[in-house]
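Let's sit down with a protein and look at its sequence and fold side by side. We need material for that, and I hope you will provide a protein of your own picking. Once you have written the record down, we can walk along the chain together.

***
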Amino acid sequence: MTFRVTARSAELFSGLVAPRVEPGAESSGSEWMRFLRDRLRENHIDAHQVCTVYVPDPHGTVNAVVAVSVDAPGDVAVGDVFVSVPTGVFAVFTPTGALADPIEDVWAQVEECVMSGSIFRAYKEEVEVVTNTGEVELFISIVL
């Protein structure tokens, strides 16, 4: 389990919603999420990465927005939603190779870090980045 702590600037994303998901490897690796990522890649051919932004609401529900980064609300594609991830502090996880699936690997590291007390999740917006070449980075909002 390795991670680094970083500040991430505010960013705007445009994409498709997967309502009421449980953030983690199971939902991220599901057929539904893969379908949404493929759909985004079809609509945004020039995008080199697709992100899943986990957005909690005040009622404890988390919605996922499978999205690409955009510069302004006017860049949001017709039919897409947009979400703004505010500036924050994140623990960044990358695959260690402990598990064959890189998405499962990073989420397992998060679970281990939370259980050991190495990080304290803020349960704000969190961003999973998957590049077209299959590289994965997971940004977990934390409390310092």
About this structure: Residues 102-116 form the longest helix (15 residues). The chain has a mean pLDDT of 94. Residues 3-141 form a domain with the Multidrug-efflux Transporter 1 Regulator Bmrr; Chain A fold (CATH 3.20.80.10).
